[in-house]
Structure formats: C-alpha cells, structure tokens
C-alpha cells in the first residue's frame, strides 16, 4: 500500500481531531505529503472512523494513484497550499470558536503572543463555496507571507505543519486563540497586542519552527 505509514497517521490524527471536538461527523479533512504524493482523507467519511485503506493517494496535480474512495472535496485547497508553502501536512477543521470568528471578523486580532507561533495575525480568507478553485486561491492568499494558519469565512480553519502532529497542534492553538477572543468579548473589549509588543516577543526568540529545507 502506497504511503502506508502516512495513511495510518491520517487515521490517528483523525481520531484525535474527533476526540478533541475540532471536527464533528464528516466535517474537516487532513492530508500529508511525501515527495510528489499526498495521502488525503476520503470524501464524506467521519475522520474518527477511518481505516488506512480508506485514505486515497493523489499526485500533486490531483491524479488519483491509489484508493477506492474519492479524495476529500477540499483536495484542491490542500494541493494549492503544498504548491505555495513548504508544508508537509495540512489540517482543516470546523471547530466551534474558529467558525464563530470566521463568520464575524476579517482577521483574528493578536490577543496573545502565541499568535506568533502561527506566523502572525491570522487572516480570514474571503468566502467561496467549499471544494472550489476560488476557495483554494482565497486560502492561499490568506496564508501568504509565511503564515501557518488561516480561517475561512463562514466555514472553518486550516493549519499547516512540518508533520501531522505539528499541523494538529497548530489547529488546537488556532481554536484556543479564537476561544480566548470570543470569551473575552463577553466581558469587555479585548486588549490587542501592538506591533511593537509583538516585535519585542520576537526579539526574545518566540517564532514558529522553521520548515526543513528541500
């Protein structure tokens, strides 16, 4: 089976996403890249119930090379990000607080310095129908400049990483930041960190880990 280890990892991360509530039912999708091949979650299947053989393998040009199930409808977005970034894994969620922010804001304000671990202020990509080239392009634009995360208007969030574990942890961090912001709004206007304050944190060494050079 092509990308055997990677397909097992997809299933493990799918269960973690379901267990932590970052996805429900068949929402969300995950992929991992190995060379010129990408293992991706299947369309319409609950991430917590996948088996390795359920996960199709495609080329970077979206050609199906192994698997009986159709690739996720968001495969174009995943492939666009692999073309644009050095990511080796991508996680897309429909997490509650992420969707709340994505339906109300144009960006997630930097309310905590850990925003820097996602590459800076998280942008909200303009709305487009799921699975379309337009959505893929909007997300690519929102992730430009070395970002590790983006939100999608009225949809959800997407994070990238050097591996699936890192992409998953970035998804958890994105949801935590969104949750802090939403909860803070219920008791007052959140204090937003300034560019200078964020720069001071960068000087102290906080930054996302570098992607390996290829």
Provide the succession of SSEs: HEEEEHEHEEHEEHH
Compute the number of strand runs: 9
Could you say what the CATH topology is called?
Answer: L-fuculose-1-phosphate Aldolase
Which class of secondary structure composition applies to the elements? alpha+beta
Task: Give unreliable regions as ranges.
Answer: none
Residues in helix, %: 25-40%
What CATH architecture do you see? Answer: 3-Layer(aba) Sandwich
| Biggest sheet, spatial arrangement of strands | 4-3-2-1-5-9-8-7-6
Radius of gyration (Å): 17 Å
Q: Note the total helix count.
A: 6
Mean pLDDT: 96
Oligomer: single chain
Question: Would you write up a description of this structure?
Answer:
The protein is of the alpha+beta class and 214 residues long. The protein has a single domain (4-198), classed as 3-Layer(aba) Sandwich (L-fuculose-1-phosphate Aldolase), CATH 3.40.225. 35% of the residues lie in helices and 17% in strands. The chain contains 6 helices and 9 strands, in the order H-E-E-E-E-H-E-H-E-E-H-E-E-H-H. The chain has helices at residues 4-19, 75-84, 96-102, 133-142, 164-185, 195-203, and strands spanning 29-34, 37-40, 57-59, 64-66, 89-93, 107-108, 122-125, 149-152, 156-161. The chain has a 9-stranded mixed sheet with strand order 4-3-2-1-5-9-8-7-6, with helices on both faces. Helix 2 runs parallel beside helix 4. The longest helix is centred in the C-terminal third of the chain and has 22 residues, at 164-185. The protein is globular and about 50 Å long. Residues 8-182 form the Class II aldolase/adducin N-terminal domain. This is Class II aldolase/adducin family protein. It comes from Actinomadura darangshiensis. InterPro entries: Aldolase_class_II_sugar_metab, Aldolase_II/adducin_N, Aldolase_II/adducin_N_sf. Keywords: Lyase, Metal-binding.
